[in-house]
Write a sequence for this structure.
């Protein structure tokens, strides 16, 4: 590289950094003393540097701050929109409910009396018309009927609560649950790695 | 832009709108200048400044003070403006705001000997406006916002050497434009 090209390549940094008096710049200064073209170029760079240091900031229009503050002070209205539940929510819930129901029914069928006795007999008893008795009416509650009613009330309340919870589902909740899921997966992964290292 | 006090930032994080108003007043010139430096359109810069402050208001609770507030704020401004510029697909004019330009170049009462120097500076500032975006951005951050090389490098996710190279190329281009202008003047005379 010719001295002038070398000089012009390093001059901008040399001038911008305050023209430090390091030994490595001795040759550069000597070249500037000897070369009028490079000296003129250095003068132009100094003019540029001076102008850039005075480069004015553009003032923001006054209405900008006013609009920002006005928007910030306006309370955000809660969007009350009822949106259909996404498939990623209702499909697993539906499958869980069906599987749970099938398990309970099959267990009830295979081993009568384990939960609430013979389910068919219970339902058949309910469907029979009440007997009109001549004497004073007597109410007899069998244990299997009691447990069936109790389970029915429990399932109804749980289902109602579940539906109410799901009805407030929105994108924010979805995101939060996604984060919880990711966090749980990360923790499980760490736990598994620790177990492997322990082995 | 001076660094806002930590207490002011904390008040804003707690939802104090009066404190946020003060924060906007302290930082808006820097934010608007930077937005204008990237977008080169007065109206776009104004809209972007508003948008940036709304983003800042919503993002403030998540600001952990791991970096300086000004660096965090500038990163939001630069990212938002560059995204906006990409979406505009370079449809913006180079200099589109004559009113602003007149304001910058408005004559002031100063000695006659200073007039030529001021005109030369104004020519150089106009030349900065015509620089390619990557050079103009580092010029604005280094000279107007007075950020050090390292902070600009972090802000733009560029190597330190690249930031210095961009600055040097911009200085060389401006010096060349100044030289060409002087030659034109000599030829005219």
């Amino acid at each position: 590289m010719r001295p002038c090209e070398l000089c012009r390549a390093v001059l901008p940094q040399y001038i911008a950094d305050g023209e430090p008096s390091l030994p490595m710049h001795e040759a550069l200064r000597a070249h500037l003393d000897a070369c009028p073209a490079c000296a003129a170029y250095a003068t132009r760079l100094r003019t540029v540097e001076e102008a850039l240091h005075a480069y004015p900031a553009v003032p923001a229009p006054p209405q900008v701050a006013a609009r920002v503050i006005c928007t910030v002070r306006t309370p955000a209205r809660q969007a009350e929109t009822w949106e259909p539940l996404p498939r990623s929510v209702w499909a697993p819930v539906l499958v869980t409910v069906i599987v749970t129901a099938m398990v309970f029914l099959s267990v009830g069928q295979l081993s009568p009396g384990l939960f609430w006795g013979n389910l068919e007999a219970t339902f058949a008893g309910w469907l029979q018309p009440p007997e009109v008795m001549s004497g004073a009416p007597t109410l007899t509650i069998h244990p299997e009927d009691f447990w069936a009613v109790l389970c029915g009330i429990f399932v109804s309340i749980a289902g109602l609560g579940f539906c109410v919870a799901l009805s407030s589902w929105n994108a924010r909740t979805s995101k939060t649950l996604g984060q919880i899921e990711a966090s749980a997966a990360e923790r499980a992964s760490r736990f598994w790695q620790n177990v492997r290292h322990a082995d | 832009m001076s660094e806002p006090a930590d207490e002011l930032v904390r008040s804003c994080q707690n939802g104090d709108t009066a404190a946020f108003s003060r924060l906007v007043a302290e930082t808006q010139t820097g934010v608007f200048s930077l937005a204008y430096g990237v977008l080169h359109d007065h109206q776009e810069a104004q809209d972007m400044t508003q948008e940036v402050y709304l983003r800042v208001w919503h993002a403030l609770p998540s600001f952990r003070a791991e970096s300086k507030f000004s660096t965090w704020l500038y990163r939001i401004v630069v990212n938002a403006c560059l995204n906006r510029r990409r979406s505009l697909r370079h449809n913006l004019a180079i200099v589109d705001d004559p009113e602003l330009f007149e304001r910058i170049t408005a004559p002031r009462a100063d000695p006659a000997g200073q007039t030529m120097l001021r005109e030369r500076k104004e020519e150089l500032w106009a030349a900065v406006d015509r620089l390619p975006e990557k050079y103009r951005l580092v010029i604005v951050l280094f000279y107007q916002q007075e950020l050090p090389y390292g902070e600009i490098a972090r802000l733009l996710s560029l190597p330190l050497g690249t930031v210095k190279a961009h600055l040097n190329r911009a200085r060389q281009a401006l010096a060349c434009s100044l030289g060409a202008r002087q030659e034109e003047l000599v030829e005219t005379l």
Observations:
- Residues 171-198 of chain A form the longest helix (28 residues).
